[in-house]
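Hi F.,

I've been meaning to write this up properly since the lab meeting, where we talked about keeping a consistent format for the predictions we share between groups. The idea is simple: the sequence comes first, exactly as it goes in, then the structure tokens exactly as they come out, then a line or two of notes. No screenshots and no reformatting. I'm using this chain as the first example so we have something concrete to point to.
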Amino acid sequence: MAVGITVSKEQTRLAREICGDLPVEIRLQDYRDVDETFDYVVSVGMFEHVGQKNYRTYMGAVHRCLSDEGLFLLHTIGNIKTQLTIDPWMDKYIFPNSLIPSMTQIASSVEGLFVIEDWHNFGFYYDATLKAWFDNFNRNWERLKWSYDERFYRMWKYYLLSSAGAFRARDLQVWQIVLSKKGVSGGYRSIR
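Output, unedited:
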């Protein structure tokens, strides 16, 4: 049985619909309120949204919920330099109160809690992902425009293309980090 959590009502509804009869429980729940143990914890695209002041709290919550022999996969966008504030435009219109972590910020947040087993960077390829999202969004705008205004259209295009540029310039990365509580006996073997 897998458990998925989110604080978004819309994500909860959609995930329950998509998962259908699969052995997955989708919960509308804050990560800080999870109080059970799992063999695996997977966090995809969430860490950059908890905010820098909550990085250690987040890692503490995962540590509390991960079995002693379990593995934690952290998938996050990463910044090549440490910043303490988000771009004002991004904060206001796209990702309020979020911050893209640096390697230093991630390492500090896991210090004493986890062993970093593997750190895979595939940010170079994310430029193409964002361009594909842009192409799909732009191609389908005629169907979408009844739900959104022209201002949203311009902002979303700007966000997707400027983000693609940041990945192309290698200022932003995409990291998948595998962590364990005590180190994998015999060493972790990366699957790539």
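Notes:
The first strand starts at residue 2 and ends at 6.
The chain has two domains: 1-34, 35-180.

If this format works for you, I'll send the rest the same way.

G.
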